[in-house]
Amino acid sequence: MDATEPRPTFVPTSYPGILHHYTKDLTAFEFDSPVLRSSDGGKPNTLLFIAGLGDNLLTVPYVSDLVRTGWSVVQVSISSTANGWGTGTLTRDAKELALCISYFKIQLSRPKVVLLGHSTGCQDIMHYLCRLEVSQQAHGQLDGAILQAPVSDREALCAMMGKETYERSWKHAQRLIKSGRGGEIMPAQITKEVFEAPCSAFRWYSLTSPNMDGEDDFFSSDISEETLEGTFGGIVPAETPLLVVYSGGDEFVPAAVDKEGLVNRWVRVCVKKGVNIDVGNSGVVGKATHNFAGCERGVFEDFLGRVGRFLKGVEGGRLTSSKILNDMVRV
């Protein structure tokens, strides 16, 4: 949902680093950091950051600060970056992420590679982990995944557009899809109030359908337990370490949503199905905005601490005690 986020006052700046050309048409930017300069043979553990709808390199304000975790930080560009998302799919995104993971893990021999998704970047990660064919994944090469601000686009758009406009929009997209015109661009008068990018009927329906059949609909608060068992509970491989961090003051989450309860549902499903979720560090960061813009420093430090502890667990192969897991199952 980042295309409509208010941006802080812009100050021109520059960042040193390495630009990686990981496929013919795709690049990734690795931030300069002490760990990158001092690592043995240039092979540090690597955190791959995937931004949300409408975001581009450096538009999410906290990314460069992630180097404080002691991991090298890379912002990945895929075909959906910036305005490309509107005519893309999660399957395309996930396949491109697999290529990036393989580039860093195989070609550059990075010891550990973890994905961190922001907003719709979380949908890319979930699609990669629970829907992409194993043969299409960078199989066995991903060492963990972090979801930051995994919000429901459907619920956010309904609140932003108003129920009448929202209903008209997804029904129009549905009609186009049923008539074999899913690739057709939605009318600007429907989408321009929330997104600048042209958006296909298929992608709009994926984001907005209330029928629980949208490809993007992983995080809505009304999703059934059975469906969650096929998404959060269907992560492959199940031993992939997972961290979920929700923003307590997320401006794109309707006030009626019980954020703590929602995250606890996801965690319980993961535990029930044997998914390796970090129970101790997953949760809601109080007063955090969607991308931490405008937050007090302590709020971001809470998030950074959770990420740092999770990554330490990935390094050492330990995340959460069995006692906590058993307590979660009994709830």
TrEMBL record:
Which superkingdom heads the taxonomic lineage of this protein's source?
Answer: Eukaryota
* InterPro entries reported in the protein's UniProt record: AB_hydrolase_fold, SidJ
- Mind telling me which Gene3D superfamilies this protein's record contains? alpha/beta hydrolase (3.40.50.1820)
Q: Which Pfam families match?
A: DUF1749
Q: What is this protein called?
A: DUF1749-domain-containing protein
